[in-house]
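Exercise: predict the fold of this chain.
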Amino acid sequence: MSTLPHRGSWEHDGFAQLPGIFPPTTVNYLRTACLQLFENENTGSLVFLKDNAAQWYEWVAQLIDRSPSLLSVITILGSYIHVLASEVWVRALGAPELAWHGDGGPLMLDISDTSQVKLQFFLTDCERDESANLVVVPGSHNRQLPENGMAETDLSRVVTVPPRAGDAILWSGDTWHAVRVNKQRQPRVSIIVAYGLMWPQPCDYVPVQGQFRKHASPLQSVLFRIAERHRFRRGTFYYPSADDPTVRLLSEKLGTLPPLPIRILRHTHLDRAAESKTI
């Protein structure tokens, strides 16, 4: 397994590291909020998950349409997208490994190259070993994970992604990934927002309810399919026109956000050359 810092190339590796998305003040605010939630709602588990978090907490909902990293999502998926999930994760000291998996299935790989992406905002440093590190197999987003386990050639290509607090990791739902054990005293704290094309819907998708539906911003209303015309109905699909609110709002968002620099390490058998690129 590579121990070199590996920030990834989206096209080549199926993931990319977006450095410095949040300033320290924002990181501290979000981390404190997540740890307070962990303290109030955790029932003794070493791995804490708050699902559908944007529905309940404004500080998560604001990440949906106000984060500058949304530009990268639109660049990859286009404008006709919705939010699949919003999650708060805390992995405490002693939290076990999460086994290798991909978030998509074989059917989705046949239908679309990329139908969903995840943005994971890291609120603690994960540069040290055994700090609940995210590990991935670069280039695996174009293949289905074998049912009988990964081959030695794949295991030899595993890399550890080394985000610092304030960074985000953007990866395809089909990229093979796992999480290492946490042996550090500091919990690993992060927030995940998953985006997907408008036409597929996860089997465990939960629509937002309650007050969030009344107070959502116009763009949140589209991304969470609150508007009647965007609600998912089994066996139907909607083809957007140029004046569709989703396309218009996200196109406006695309035009107001600056491009994000992504540090890329292209790996070969002989060397690893670093270069800068913007998507």
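Check your answer against the key: Residues 225 and 231 are 5 Å apart (CA to CA).
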